[in-house]
TrEMBL record:
It comes from Bradyrhizobium diazoefficiens (strain JCM 10833 / BCRC 13528 / IAM 13628 / NBRC 14792 / USDA 110). Residues 1-44 are annotated as: Disordered. The keyword Coiled coil applies. Residues 93-139 form a coiled coil. This is Blr7724 protein. Keywords: Coiled coil.
C-alpha cells in the first residue's frame, strides 16, 4: 500500500484500460497525452439524429425537423383517428351496457311483481282453505255435540 497526501494508505490497484471515447482530464497546459482518444462528433450526431433507410437504395437519410414533420404529422393523424375510433367503440359499448342494465332492472321489477302477485294469490288460497277447514271443523264439532 502507498500513502497518498492525506496520510491514509492507498491500495495498489491496476490502472483501468483506456475506454474508447473517454479522455483523460487535461492538465494546466491543455496539452493532450499521446494516448488520448478524441470523440468523433459524427458518432454523437448519429445517436441523437434519427435516421431512416431507403427501402430501394438502402441509403441512410438523416431526419431533420423539416423532413420529419410530415411523417410526424401523418403518424399523429393516424393515432388520433385510432383514438377517436376507440373512444367511439367504448361509447357504443357503454351505451349497450347501460341499455342491458336497464333491461335487467326492468326484468327484475317484472319478476318481483309476478312473485308478489303469486304470493298474494297463494296467501288468499291458503286463507280460503283454512277458513273452509275451520268451518268444517266447527260444523263437525257442532254435529258431534248434538
Amino acid at each position: 500500500m502507498e500513502e497518498n497526501g492525506s496520510g491514509r494508505p492507498r491500495p495498489l490497484l491496476p490502472r483501468p484500460p483506456h475506454l474508447r471515447g473517454i479522455t483523460r482530464p487535461q492538465g494546466l497546459s491543455g496539452a493532450r497525452p499521446p494516448d488520448t482518444i478524441t470523440v468523433n462528433s459524427q458518432r454523437t450526431d448519429a445517436v441523437t439524429d434519427p435516421q431512416i433507410v431507403c427501402p430501394n437504395c438502402h441509403t441512410e437519410i438523416k431526419l431533420t425537423e423539416s423532413l420529419a414533420a410530415p411523417l410526424i404529422a401523418e403518424t399523429r393523424r393516424k393515432f388520433d383517428q385510432q383514438l377517436t375510433a376507440k373512444e367511439e367503440d367504448f361509447g357504443r359499448r357503454e351505451a349497450l351496457l347501460k341499455q342491458a342494465r336497464e333491461e335487467i332492472a326492468k326484468a327484475r321489477e317484472a319478476v318481483d311483481e309476478q312473485v308478489a302477485a303469486k304470493l298474494k294469490a297463494e296467501r288468499a288460497n291458503i286463507a280460503e282453505a283454512e277458513a273452509k277447514r275451520a268451518r268444517l271443523a266447527v260444523a263437525d264439532e257442532l254435529s258431534t255435540r248434538d
